[in-house]
Every structure is written in structure tokens, then in C-alpha cells.
């Protein structure tokens, strides 16, 4: 490092780094800092790059850990950064690229050091390293307070994100400000204590920086929604003249070293959007259960309104306005990973205005289909992502308008569903199909009660409004009922006194547990079928055809006392329609049978059926949601932030287990 370009293999012997980590204190006013910060080292932009960098500078970091309590050089670096950050806005206006470059370099070095300290020492140890040993020696009566220095850094980072306009010159330092905040907040990852007792979180939640909470959340949402690419992508498309005006090394820094590379993975070129989303999620998911520490970032996310709406914001609610349409489309286009699913969940569950916008969107299919794809590919996904996807569908299914509208939307050529060609299918039928498939997958492989409970709850909510269910989906539904029923009968027989199960069957305790689960699933499936027939019989001719064709399977439920009450209505339907089919000639076509059923349905009266309450389930968040969300969130950050984390001292989750 210094005035020339540096490479990884040169870092170990770099004289400026050696001096910085040495035993001599360096004043914040020393010309040394200009030399240290005048490097064109291309910053890492992948986890592998970060690890190579850390391995290269590890000797310097180890030396700094021991020397800094005496020299106070880290505090001096912080003061240098704070000077640069205070003048950054003016430098941007004057297009002083060299000053911006040095400001970026100071922050980049500081972030690397803070991350190493946090991973190695934890939060308390890191704070001790921020003490200004030079000031303490020179002016003992005015001893430094590391908490105040830390707060100044956090304030500066906030101001970079919310005050500095984003363009090709400031993209890199904006990303670095986001990265540094994520690193500071990662104290939670290396601590078993709750965030509300953390100094970092206390500063962020109710320090001076909290006045920016609305603007910060809005800015982070803006970065995520815009999906801005690194500047080289823009200039390459436009034939860019900016590169010609800069030294190539400096340009590599300002564009995060993406210049000249080809976009194999588009997400790697939207690094600011990706990291902004992670930072937003970290901010809103901590300090949620404590009255003494209100979370202003959470309140901001849950209260913002649509900038394209005339909705009036109440005077007693601090809220900003944002373009829902842009956010909605970005969610739809990026709903492929945990962090996007988490954001979608938070908005649907906690922001009533945005939930209303999604529910009544004419393009709701754009949001739902990616969710169905996630569930369809469940074996390749982690269980947390499957849970979040199902919860989102459950929340959607709570809305009657959604339950009705999805059957009026047609999907064409569903190519991602590979088990059968579906040239046209209603969105509602597609949702039912994927939920049925997920239940089947769970019952045969995962055996996760939480998973099938959410699937069944969503199906139950939709059941009274299901119309024109696709014939293939009807077959799948009844086949699931049949296979689960046969399994229930087999397990019931094995559980009888004196019956010894085969060696490859379940132990008695497991058998009874499986029986209980099967009983619950079957009862819910029969109630869902009952609800469809009760409220939408005439609009489900394909379903009627299927249950009449497979009517023999219902005998196993009819003979079981657990299901007899639910079978009453189904039996009434079977007894009404069966005579119409028995009088038919043999070898009639499916179409002819369907027409007979349709004709007979016109004579049907729902008064024949026993009145049952409409099935309604509502998602309720756990009493201590942080117990689930915080470990999950940090595992997502660990795996997807493109920051290399030393997993050795992580306490909040198991880093060796896939997220």
C-alpha cells in the first residue's frame, strides 16, 4: 500500500502497514496517513477474495492487536476517517476523485480491523481497542471514551449512506459504509447476549444516528428496489467516457474492481442492493421485544406508505412514502433467496398498507409464482426458506379477495413444473397443486409437523373459494387422500394389541406419533374437501368427477370413528350423484360423464348438507420471534453477504450447518 498499486502477495511486507501495526504511535495529523491511504488495491468482492485478503494481512492484524493498546493507532485511523467523511460531501460536489478514493481506503482498512477485532475479542474487547492511548497519555484529565468514538463512526456511516448522492464515484464508498455497519452489527453473531445490552445496538437504536432511521430505511429500500449495478456496467453499456478520465487502478477501486469483467452472475453486480437488504433486515429484526429499547427502523419499515397513493399519513405516525410498484416488481424479480423472502414476510405481516397493495394487485401472479417455484424445488432449499415461503402463502390466504381472485388468473405453459405439461392452469389450482405436493413430500421425507400444518392451514383458508379446480390437481388431491388413508389404516392395524409390527416398521412410540400426525392430516384434508363441496360444488365439476370415480377410497374413512362426522356431507354428495352415473351406458367418454355431472349439479341444493363453519386460520408470530429470526438471519448474512466470516467464535448459530 502507498502511492502505488498493491497486490495480495505484497501486503505482508508493506512498510506502511508494518508501521501502522508497529509499536510507534502515529498522530492523526501525521503525513503518514496520506501515504498509507494512497493505494489502488482492488477491493475483494467475493467471500473467497475476502479470505485471501485476510490471510494476507493476518500478521499485521495480529501485531496490531498487541501494539494498539499502547499506540492508539486505530483511534488515530478513526479520526482520519472522520475528517475525510466530514468533507466527503464537498469532495463529491467538487468531483475530487482522489479525496473520495482516500476516504474509501480509510474506511476499507477500518472495516477490516473492526471485523478482526470483533471476531477475535468480541464487543467489549473491541471497544477497549478503540481507546485513544495517545490522548490518554497527553491529557489524562480528558481521557478518551471509546463509546463516543464508536458513535461518531456510526453517525458518519449513516450520513454517507443517506446524504451522499449515489453515482459512479460514490458507489464504492456507499457499499463500504453498508459493509462496515454490517460488521459492527455482527457483534451479535459472536455473543450469547441479547442485542439490547450491546453498546453497538444501543447507539444505533437510540443514539444520535437514530434520527436518520426513516431516511436510512427509505434509502436502503431504494438501493434494493433500484438494483443499481456497479458503475462499470452502466458505462460499458453507454460506451463510458468516465474510465478514460481516470487511472485504471483508481477506477478499479471506485467500481469495486468489476471493470472489464463479464456478468456471469447478475447478483454480484448488484452488490449495493444485496448488502442494503441484509443491513435493513439486521436493523429491523433486533431489539424487538424490549420496551426500554424501541426499534425506530422496524417502525419505519412497518409504517411507510405508497408515494403513488393519496393515502393520508396520520400526524402521530412518523412515516415516509415510497413507490410500492417499484418495490413490488423488485420483490417479484428477486424472490429466490432467504433475504428476499424475509423482507416479503415482514412487509406482508407487519405493513398493512403494503399488504393491501399486494393483495389487490392485478399482477399478484408475479409475486405468487416465485413462491411456488421455491416450494417446488424444496429438496434443494433449506427448511427455513420453505417455512418462510409457506407463511407468506398462509398470510395471503387469510384475505378473501386473494382466495377468490387467484382462480380467475390463468397461467400459460408452466415450464418449471416438470412432472406434467401444464399448458394452461388457473393460479389457484397451481397453488393447491404445489401445497399438496409439499404435504406429500413432507409426510414421506421430512416429517415436520410445522410444515404440513401451514400447508393445510393455507388450503383450508382457500377451500371455500376454490373454483374450477384443474382435473390434474383433483387427481393429485384425491391420490394424496388415498395414500395417506392407506398408511393410516396400516399403522392402525399395527397398533392394535397383540399385533407385532415387522422388523422394518416403526417402534410403538414412533408408530403412535405417526398415527397422530396422519389422523390430523387426514382430518384436515377431509375438512378441506368438505368445505369445497359445501361452498363451491357447482363450480368444481372436475373435483366431483374425481371423487365419484374414486368413491371406493372413502370406505376406509367411513368405517373409522375419527372421521365419520366429516364423512356425512361427502356421503350425501356421493349418494346424490352416484345414481345419475349408474344409469349410464358403458364406454361413455369422460366428457359425457362430466356433462351428466354438470347437469345433475343444477338440481343440487346445498341445504342437503350439514352446515359447518367456514375454515379460517390466521398466522400468529411466535411469542419470542427473535429466538427464531436472529439466528436464521445471521446464518443468511454469514452465507450470502460476500464477507468472509471467521466461524471459529460464532455463538448464535452453527456455521457448519447449511442455512
Quaternary structure state of the chains depicted: single chain
The profile of the biggest β sheet is: 2 strands, parallel
Radius of gyration: 31 Å
Query: End-to-end span in angstroms?
Result: 37 Å
How many strands appear in the DSSP assignment? Answer: 4
Mean pLDDT: 87
Low-confidence stretches: 233-255, 258-264
Query: What proportion of the residues is helical, as a percent range?
Result: 55-70%
Beta fraction: under 5%
Neighbour order of strands in the largest sheet: 1-2
The assigned structural class equals mainly alpha
From the spread of the alpha carbons, the general shape counts as elongated
Discrete helix count: 31
Descriptive overview:
Belongs to the dymeclin family. This is Dymeclin. Pfam families: Dymeclin. It comes from Trichonephila clavata (Joro spider). Keywords: Lipoprotein, Myristate. The protein has helices spanning 8-11, 15-20, 32-36, 47-71, 73-86, 88-93, 97-129, 133-138, 146-163, 171-185, 199-206, 213-226, 231-238, 248-254, 271-285, 296-303, 324-334, 338-350, 352-359, 364-376, 383-397, 400-405, 427-446, 449-463, 471-494, 508-536, 541-549, 555-558, 564-582, 590-601, 626-640, and strands spanning 305-306, 321-322, 410-412, 424-426. It has 31 helices and four strands. The model is unreliable at 233-255 and 258-264 (pLDDT under 50). It is elongated. Helix content is 61%, strand content 2%. The relative contact order is 0.07. It is an all-alpha fold. Helix 7 (97-129) runs parallel beside helix 10 (171-185) and helix 27 (541-549) packs across helix 30. The strands form two sheets. Strands 1-2 form a two-stranded parallel ribbon. Strands 3-4 form a two-stranded antiparallel sheet.
Amino acid at each position: 500500500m502507498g502511492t502505488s498499486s498493491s497486490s495480495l502477495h505484497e501486503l505482508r511486507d508493506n512498510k506502511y502497514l508494518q508501521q501502522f501495526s508497529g509499536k510507534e504511535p502515529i498522530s492523526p495529523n501525521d503525513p503518514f496517513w496520506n501515504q498509507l491511504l494512497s493505494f489502488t488495491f482492488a477491493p475483494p468482492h467475493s467471500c473467497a477474495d475476502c479470505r485471501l485478503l485476510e490471510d494476507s494481512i493476518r500478521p499485521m492484524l495480529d501485531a496490531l492487536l498487541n501494539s494498539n493498546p499502547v499506540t492508539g493507532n486505530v483511534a488515530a485511523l478513526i479520526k482520519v476517517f472522520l475528517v475525510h467523511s466530514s468533507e466527503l460531501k464537498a469532495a463529491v460536489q467538487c468531483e475530487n476523485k482522489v479525496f473520495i478514493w482516500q476516504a474509501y481506503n480509510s474506511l476499507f482498512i477500518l472495516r477490516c480491523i473492526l471485523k478482526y477485532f470483533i471476531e477475535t475479542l468480541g464487543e467489549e474487547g473491541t471497544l477497549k481497542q478503540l481507546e485513544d492511548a495517545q490522548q490518554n497519555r497527553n491529557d489524562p484529565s480528558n481521557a478518551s471514551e471509546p463509546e463516543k468514538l464508536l458513535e461518531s463512526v456510526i453517525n458518519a456511516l449513516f450520513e454517507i449512506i443517506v446524504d451522499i448522492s449515489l453515482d459512479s464515484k460514490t458507489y464504492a464508498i456507499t457499499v463500504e459504509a453498508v459493509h462496515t455497519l454490517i460488521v459492527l452489527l455482527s457483534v451479535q453473531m459472536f455473543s450469547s447476549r441479547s442485542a439490547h445490552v450491546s453498546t453497538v445496538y444501543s447507539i444505533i437504536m437510540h443514539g444520535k444516528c437514530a434520527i436518520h432511521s426513516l431516511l436510512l430505511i427509505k434509502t436502503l429500500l431504494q438501493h434494493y428496489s433500484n438494483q443499481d449495478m456497479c458503475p462499470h456496467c452502466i458505462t460499458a453499456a453507454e460506451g463510458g467516457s468516465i474510465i478514460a478520465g481516470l487511472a485504471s487502478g483508481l477506477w478499479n477501486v471506485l467500481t469495486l474492481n468489476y471493470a472489464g469483467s463479464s456478468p456471469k452472475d447478475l447478483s454480484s453486480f448488484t452488490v449495493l442492493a444485496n448488502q442494503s437488504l441484509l443491513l435493513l433486515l439486521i436493523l429491523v429484526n433486533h431489539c424487538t421485544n424490549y420496551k426500554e429499547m424501541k426499534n425506530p427502523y422496524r417502525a419505519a419499515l412497518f409504517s411507510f406508505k405508497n408515494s403513488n397513493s393519496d393515502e393520508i399519513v396520520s400526524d402521530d405516525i412518523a412515516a415516509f412514502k415510497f413507490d410500492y410498484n417499484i418495490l413490488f416488481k423488485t420483490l417479484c424479480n428477486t424472490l429466490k433467496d432467504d433475504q428476499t423472502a424475509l423482507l416479503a414476510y415482514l412487509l406482508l405481516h407487519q405493513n398493512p398498507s403494503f399488504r393491501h397493495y399486494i393483495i389487490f394487485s392485478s399482477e399478484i401472479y408475479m409475486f405468487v409464482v416465485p413462491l411456488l417455484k421455491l416450494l417446488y424445488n424444496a429438496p434443494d432449499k433449506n427448511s427455513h426458506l420453505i417455512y418462510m415461503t409457506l407463511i407468506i402463502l398462509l398470510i395471503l390466504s387469510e384475505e378473501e379477495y386473494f382466495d377468490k381472485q387467484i382462480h380467475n388468473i390463468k397461467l400459460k405453459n408452466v415450464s418449471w413444473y416438470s412432472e406434467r405439461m401444464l399448458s394452461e392452469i388457473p393460479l389457484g389450482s397451481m397453488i393447491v397443486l404445489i401445497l399438496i405436493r409439499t404435504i406429500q413430500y413432507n409426510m414421506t421425507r421430512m416429517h415436520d409437523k410445522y410444515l404440513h400444518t401451514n400447508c393445510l392451514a393455507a388450503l383450508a383458508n382457500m377451500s371455500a373459494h376454490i373454483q374450477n379446480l384443474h382435473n390434474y390437481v383433483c387427481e393429485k388431491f384425491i391420490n394424496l387422500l388415498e395414500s395417506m388413508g392407506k398408511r393410516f389404516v396400516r399403522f392402525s392395524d399395527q397398533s392394535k394389541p397383540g399385533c407385532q409390527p415387522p422388523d422394518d416398521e416403526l417402534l410403538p412410540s414412533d408408530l403412535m406419533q405417526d398415527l397422530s400426525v396422519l389422523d390430523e392430516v387426514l382430518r384436515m384434508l377431509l375438512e378441506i374437501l368438505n368445505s369445497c363441496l359445501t361452498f363451491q360444488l357447482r363450480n368444481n365439476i372436475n373435483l366431483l368427477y374425481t371423487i365419484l370415480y374414486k368413491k371406493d377410497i372413502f370406505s376406509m374413512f367411513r368405517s373409522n370413528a375419527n372421521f365419520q362426522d366429516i364423512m356425512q356431507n361427502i356421503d350425501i354428495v356421493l349418494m346424490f350423484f352416484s345414481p345419475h352415473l349408474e344409469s349410464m351406458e358403458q364406454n361413455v367418454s369422460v366428457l359425457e360423464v362430466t356433462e351428466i355431472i354438470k347437469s345433475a349439479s343444477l338440481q343440487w341444493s346445498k341445504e342437503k348438507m350439514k352446515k359447518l363453519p367456514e375454515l379460517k386460520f390466521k398466522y400468529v408470530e411466535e411469542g419470542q420471534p427473535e429466538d427464531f429470526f436472529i439466528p436464521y438471519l445471521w446464518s443468511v448474512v454469514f452465507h450470502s453477504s460476500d464477507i468472509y466470516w471467521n466461524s471459529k467464535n460464532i455463538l448464535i448459530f452453527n456455521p457448519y450447518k447449511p442455512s
